[in-house]
Amino acid sequence: MGFAVLLGTLSLAVPAPRAAAAHPGRDVAAGAHCAACHASPELAVPVRTESCSGCHQWVRAVAADPAKRAKARTIFPNWDRYEKNVVSYFGMPDLAVAFARLDPKWVRTYLADPHDVRPTLDESMVRVGLDAAALDALTAWAAGYSAKVPATPAPDPAAVATGERLFTERACAACHTFGSRHLGPGIPGAPDLRWARQRMTSDMIAAWIANPAAVAPGATMPALGLTEAEARALRDYVVLADPDPAPVPVPAVANGEPAPATPTWTDVEARVFGKICVHCHMDPAQNEGRAGPGNAGGFGWAATGIELQTYEGVRKEQVRVLAALERRYAEEARDHVRPGQVPAATARPPRPGMPMGQPALPLEDYAMVKAWYAAGAPR
Fold it and tell me: Is 182 helix (H, G, I), strand (E, B) or coil?
């Protein structure tokens, strides 16, 4: 029985789309599956089987309910694996809240070439397959959410020391990293403040620090109870202080569990294809006709026809699977960084590496997949 069948047994309360005039950028956002990860008042909430965040929230909710969990385990034999694997897509930014504060010019640049701005979050922004006209339309739609904030004096170097003191006193580092200047602990949804000066205007940063909810209702950042002068001083620290007084070296790629000496389909399915790839590369026959964005097209990319849920589908895709996994190691240097690191400048290949938006496979898992294919893809 496919996962889609089980997913239809529980409903989640979701906001209704906001009534608004038609906008081509909204159509681009809908076609690029932005709502699969992000909430938006103007985008229809996708059915759970096509929603990364909604599906994972549902799995976690079922896992916390003994009765629903018992039922799930009888319906789907791999339920325990789902509970173990579902660790991501719980803190994705709300698009209305994000667009209210972000500089539209930065949004355009970021969508064209995303990089990791939340180093304590496992997932990162996927690279969307949109041309220049589509990016322009989406950016214009985002700009319609921009909040109007009062003008403020230019950032003042003389206020940096006061801002640094406030940063410590108000425990800003409990949520945010700030380059290598403040490494944590941080929380997953809070961005690295090293990017604030690129992502927001100085006026917006001051207004956001003073009262986030006044800029964007629904903001999760709390108001700190600062005076206007204190908010500007904290802004000046974030905008002017060196975020990297002591750069953090980039460590080697982390290794995972040892791979089996002679891997079988059971091994590679459990550790790679059934754990990660199947989310986007589904077998329509097992999922009520759904093929997933990796198979049927999504996030602005055309359909690939790559199905990775069945043994037969995986076996015939050796060349494309290995090439996609290899591309991710180069891309990850920009897409996924650790606190205190700066994303590397990389030349983007024509298509993104896999898994898209997630860390690259542990080296042992990649070696296992290569060995499995080299051995003739044994059952």
Answer: strand
Cα–Cα distance, 135 to 29 (Å, whole number): 9
DSSP string, 111-141: HHS---S-TTSS--PPPP---HHHHHHHHHH
HSE value, Cβ hemisphere, 13 Å, CA-based, for 17: 12
CA distance 253 to 300: 29
285 token code pair:
């026959």
Domains of the chain: 3-143 (no CATH), 157-240 (1.10.760.10), 265-374 (no CATH)
Sign of CA dihedral 256, 257, 258, 259: negative
Q: Which of 218, 38, 182 is nearest to 196 (CA)?
A: 182
Closest CA to 128 of 267, 230, 33: 33
Structure tokens at 298: 């999504």
Residue 335 · residue 124 · CB < 8 Å: yes
- Of 69, 31, 63, 67, residue with least CA distance to 50: 31
Do you find a cis peptide bond into 185, omega within 30 degrees of 0? yes
pLDDT tens per residue, the chain (379 residues)?
Answer: 333 333 333 333 333 344 456 899 999 999 999 999 999 999 999 988 889 999 999 999 999 999 999 999 999 888 999 999 898 898 899 999 999 999 999 999 999 999 999 999 888 999 999 999 999 999 999 999 999 999 999 999 999 999 999 999 999 999 999 999 999 788 988 999 999 999 999 999 999 999 999 999 999 999 999 999 999 999 999 999 999 988 777 665 556 678 788 999 999 999 999 999 999 999 999 998 999 999 999 999 999 999 999 999 999 999 999 999 999 998 988 998 889 989 998 888 999 999 999 999 999 999 999 999 999 999 9
Q: Please state, in angstroms and rounded to a whole number, the distance separating the CA atoms of residues 208 and 188.
A: 19
